[in-house]
């Protein structure tokens, strides 16, 4: 234990730790072990952030999905296919079903969100660094804002294409009523695989039902969410002259960015969810435009935002936690790495 006069304050220690990496030549930071350390840091921190945020908000996520699909099929708490529950009634019905059933589908949710969030943030950060979408041989578009939004849109499209089959499986498990027995990941996979009499190579298309409205919705969603989050975080750093924003700033930035993106693209996500959850006869399956017309005629404009309140309650803590945990995890990774190399 050092005497009081010789103890190092937290501010001095942080400045010393930050100074260590600044003394390392740039050629070493971007090559060899430092490069792969940065790649691993972005992937792991992104994956962990997704798992933490999704597990904390799993009950709200399930309530949101059930609210979205209850108009076309019977779900927990409904005595008939025509009955409709509000958010409070849905949560009460889930509670009566059993507290642990609120996390139904969370395992497959975590299996989905870890690689999804890891890939999403990794691709987005790499695109931001390279600026290959806005500055290449074909065109040279100046402007940091355009670059961030373009990178977010392309990131969303790539991740949605890779992870969409897992989204289908997750939705089927979460919307299964308790009285219908249990369904695991393998059971859901086999059921979806056998739903349509396609040739074996084409059965993979069963896992891409509703993909078109999904990708149309996710591109502007990812552009707004990721673009605004990164622009706001960078602006906050520049304005206050700091390298690492605090929890409150990160939580606020993640919340506002996602809420704005969700409000703009929610109708696409609702139609996608209904197409994913449908389990009836193939001859009665509706296309994306079919679902759009059905909702417009039977429910009106309000129907396109069914479950929006529950989705908002989920998006606020989920996105805030994900953005905050991602940056804080990177901060702790850097501290450990700097001590290791000091």
Low-confidence stretches: 1-32
In percent, how much strand structure appears in the residues? under 5%
SSE sequence, one letter per element: HHHHHHHHHHHH
Structural class, by secondary structure, is mainly alpha
What does this structure look like?
The chain has 342 residues and is mostly helical. It is built from twelve helices and no strands. It has helices at residues 10-22, 26-29, 32-56, 58-69, 87-97, 106-130, 144-174, 185-193, 211-240, 247-277, 288-298, 308-341. Helix 3 (32-56) packs antiparallel against helix 12 (308-341), helix 7 (144-174) packs across helix 9 and helix 10 crosses helix 12. The protein starts with 9 loop residues before the first helix and ends with a helix. The model is unreliable at 1-32 (pLDDT under 50).
Task: Characterize this entry briefly.
This protein is mainly alpha-helical and 342 residues long.
Helices and strands, with pairings:
Layout: H1 10-22, H2 26-29, H3 32-56, H4 58-69, H5 87-97, H6 106-130, H7 144-174, H8 185-193, H9 211-240, H10 247-277, H11 288-298, H12 308-341
